[in-house]
Structures are given as C-alpha cells and as structure tokens.
Amino acid sequence: MKKILIALVCLTPLLEAKAQFPYVRFGLEGQAGYTSNDQVPFWMRSNQFGSVPLSGASASLIGSARVDYDTSRTKLFDWGAGVQVRGNAGKGSNLTLIEGYGKLRIGIFQLQGGRIKQVMGLSDTLLTSGNYAISGNALGIPKVEISIPEYYAIPFLGRFVAFKGNFAHGWIGKTPVQYGDTNMTTTQFHQKSLYVRLGKPASKLKLYGGFNHQVFFGDEKYVWSERSFRNKKFNLSEWKTYEYIVLGKVWNWSKVGNHIGSIDLGLEYALKNSRLLIYRQTFYEVGGLAHLSNVMDGLHGISLTNTRTDSKRVKWNKLLLEVLLTKNQGGETWSKVTPSGDEDYYNNYMYTEGWSYNGTGLGNPLITAQKDMRPGQPHYPKDYFANNRVIAFHAGGDVDFNEWNMLARLTYSINYGTFGTSPQGHTTGETHTQPIYGFFEPTNQFSGFVEVGRALKNNMRVSGTAALDQGRLLNNSFGLQLKLSKTF
User: Fold this and answer.
1) What CATH number labels 103-487?
2) What Gene3D superfamilies does the database record attribute to this sequence (predicted)?
3) For residue 232, what are the contacts with CB-CB under 8 A and spacing of at least 6?
C-alpha cells in the first residue's frame, strides 16, 4: 500500500500542470473485487495490457495523465505524452507502470518512445479475442518507433490508395535461452508493418491488406556457439546481423532470432445504418506459410458497427463473431512436408519462454502457457505454451440500454495441446519426435465476461464486472469487480 501512496504523490505535480497545458487529461480509478479459487478469470486478465488485479480479495488504484494532440486545428508539429500506473493490494501488493511514453508528430509521421498500449494486426480492436502477433495481452515492450499511424491517402492517386506502417526497435531485457554458452541473453525487439487501403475515404467499399513482422534477437555470438550449431562459428557483424533480422534471412540453416507475424486481409462496407468489417489474419513463424502448409489456420472475424446517430432506450453499438483456428500448423500426417516442420505457434527452440514478455504471452491469449493451465495436463517440456492447437468460437457485444452500457465477451474453445503431446509428435522435415510425455486429450473451455456501467455527474463513471471460467483447461473460477473512475 505504501507504494500505491507514493505513486499518487508522484501524480500530484501533473495535476497542477493542467492550467499550463489545456490538453492534459487526468484519470483516477478505484477498483475492489474478489476472484475464487486463487485464480483471476480469463477475461479479467487477458488483453488488459498487463493491468490485472490480484487473485482473491483485492483493491486497486489506477492513476493516469495524458497530453493529446491538438485536434482543433491543423498543425505541422505537435507533441503528446502519457503515463498510467496501477497499484494492487490484497494478499500481496505491487506497483506497475502500465504505460509511459512521449510522442512527436511531424506532418503524417510520428516519433514515439516508451511503453505504449498498442496492438498489431487487422481486426476489431474493441471486442476481438486478440491479434496473433501483438494482442495487448502483456505489458508493452519499451521501444522507439517511427510510424505513419493513420492511413494516408495518396493525393496523386485520387486518394484511392492509402497506407500506414511502422518501424520500431525495443528492449526486452534478460531472457532465458536453451542453447549456447549462456542461459540468459540480453534480448532486443524488432517490429515493422505495412498496411494498404483501397477505396476513397468516403467510399462505401474499402479493401485492406498488409503484414506485420516481429523478432526477438540479441547476443548472437554467445547463443550461436560452435558447440550448439553444427560447428559453425557465428561470424556476422552487428550491422550484418541486423540486416538478417530485418530481412528474415537464413544463416546456418536457421533465421537469426525468433520471427513471428501475420499477413492480414480485410473488407469494410458501409451499409445504410451500420458498417461491416470482415477480416482474416494468416500466421507465420518458422517457414511453413511459404509452403502453404499451415494456410488452414487463421483468425477469422466479422464485426458490425451501428452508425445511427439517433438516441434510443436500447441501442446496440457493436457486435462481433470470431473463429480462431490454430490446430493444423502444417503438422498433421497429411500435411505437406516442409524443412521446418510444424509451426509450434509461440514456442521457440532457442527462447525458453517463447513469444512472451515478463512471462505473459504477447499474442492471442487463447494459446495457453503451461503456468496458466489446470495442473495435470500432459506437457512437452520444451514447450512454454503447452496448448497452441486451438479451435475457438468467440462473440462480443457492446450495447446501450437507457443510460447504461454493457460490454460482453463469450468464448468457447476446444484445445488439443501441442504436436509434442499429440499422436503425431513434433516434426522437423521427415523427422518425427515421439510423444513420450503423454497425449493431450481434446479439452473444452468456456470463458465469459460482462461489464455494466454508466456515466455519473462531474465526469465520473461507475461499473461492475462479472467473469467466469468453466471447463477442463483452466481452473474453474469466477470474479466480481466494482469500479469507480473520474476524468478531469
């Protein structure tokens, strides 16, 4: 609790700055809740950017300050900054920097640095189960980024073609590895993306396409040791190593670093009183997509947004349906044989904790780490994510009734473990690793979440949350939470 009070004292000077910076916005939120079975339910902890309560009875205080761009007039140069801190108290206590960044806008370009709440991929950002590459499930990786954050319509092409993208470098910190002369490396992060939109800004039909690419890398001269990698000494300079990372080039039979991303397609159509969005994310990791071996897998979504402006006592704002398929991975007995074998999503032969940051998965949370699963499930020891073969059906809704708003997420999944715990076993080319650690039987899981809230006077808001996990993958649990917030 002492740490929480210190955080609030640190925010006091920011409150005094509002008179000097009229675009500063402040927020303060108090939470009190309870979760059963010493477990925070799935949708109370997933895709929350690391802002998660403690299990059991707990109280939380969240303070934030933000300087946004001046949208009242067009400016060539502008700047912004933000910070959000969360303090939890209950069985224990902790203090977490959820967000802390600064940004500078120069025309269509933005330079941004720090810890940022950010997702990567084409989807509905409010209700989705989570993008494949970066879903907002974990804390943001500290990084420096140059980007075109909003679609820029090219004037000389009649504004029919627009694009956006980013290029970033980040710092992961010390990361455990499975090979080389050291078991901990200083790991860095590379990210880039490019997305294109076809259709004028006012067109009814717009088409979207693009890709994102992320890499963990660092300390290659220690990790890629002679003893571990076919008696070939790592001989790339730092700049040459970075070239291999950015371009995804292969050195000594493998890419340098842990690469992951998605290729995304989407369609948006303006109906009379709503807007339809259909999208698909196709996954790539170790090379199977180049052979179309895992093309059956993907995140498929359809979202409908209400564009009516009239007020009604009951009004739906947004509805969503998604299907997540990750079961194939190019590892089935009938799949095309590829040099890299099954994709083994989010796991990595080098990085012990796979596609995670501070122990929490960076991608879609329906792919489950061993530590989050019910004890007793078969587990291939080298797989940090013990369940990455999933068929999931996800629905979400945002509805207003009278002065209240309701947000709901409902997810049903069938889980198959990994290929390491399947009859097929893991594959690399023609080589099959026998599943000697047992078979993961198909396991059903339901997770639900409902939040109901309303605005009060003086920029205050009150809301209540209920969440439930029921099935055989996660520990059964429920959670209740009451929130009271104020912005000023």
Assistant:
1) 2.40.160
2) Capsule assembly protein Wzi (2.40.160.130)
3) 226, 252
